Amino acid sequence: MRNLVVFMHISLDGFTARADGAMNWIKVSDELFEYANARTEVADTALYGRKTFEMMDAYWPTAGDEPDASKHDIEHSTWYNKTLKYVVSETTEQQDTDKIKFISGDVKAQVEGLKKQDGGEIIMFGSPGLARYLMAEGLVDEYWLFVNPIILGAGIPLFANVEIKLRLKKSTTLANGVVGLHYIKE
């Protein structure tokens, strides 16, 4: 059974973005990218909501090819291009390709089916609405949360109307004040 891992930046008060979707408060650094890269290396499948996928797919396929590409851009672009991506969407009219598959209808059953397949971890970046749905259905096995030292007061929450018992597996404090927390579901 493969683990489904939520990988998310959050504010200290649990928001993934401002109410307008802005994420300009997220602190990034080479140290954070190295930490994140270690996680993506064990995942061979990515799961996205439609909006997050569209944002990611507009940037990552060619990010590593740019003349000024950073080490992180090159590494993540390479990972993104070789990774099988599943996109949960009821509205997209796009067709499946060899590396991009669309999920609609009975999302729970389809994600359960993905988890039963052979392979590495299934990692989900962003997509807080999808994350909340998957949490409510009991499908998330691990949480990699990057808690940024900011209180937004309002915005798009990661956790809403759900109780999940977790066990802290590891915490890492980065030099920029971000705390990486790795939790597993009890």
UniProtKB/TrEMBL annotation:
Keywords linked to the UniProt accession: Membrane, Transmembrane, Transmembrane helix
Where are the annotated coiled coils located? none
What's an example GO BP annotation here? Answer: riboflavin biosynthetic process
Gene3D superfamilies named in the record: Dihydrofolate Reductase, subunit A
Which segments constitute the Bacterial bifunctional deaminase-reductase C-terminal domain? Answer: 4-179
**Regions that span the bilayer:** 143-162
Q: Report a single Gene Ontology molecular function.
A: 5-amino-6-(5-phosphoribosylamino)uracil reductase activity
What InterPro entries does the database record attribute to this sequence?
Answer: DHFR-like_dom_sf, RibDG_C, Riboflavin_Biosynth_HTPR
Q: What is this protein called?
A: Dihydrofolate reductase
Which source organism does the UniProt entry give?
Answer: Mucilaginibacter gossypiicola
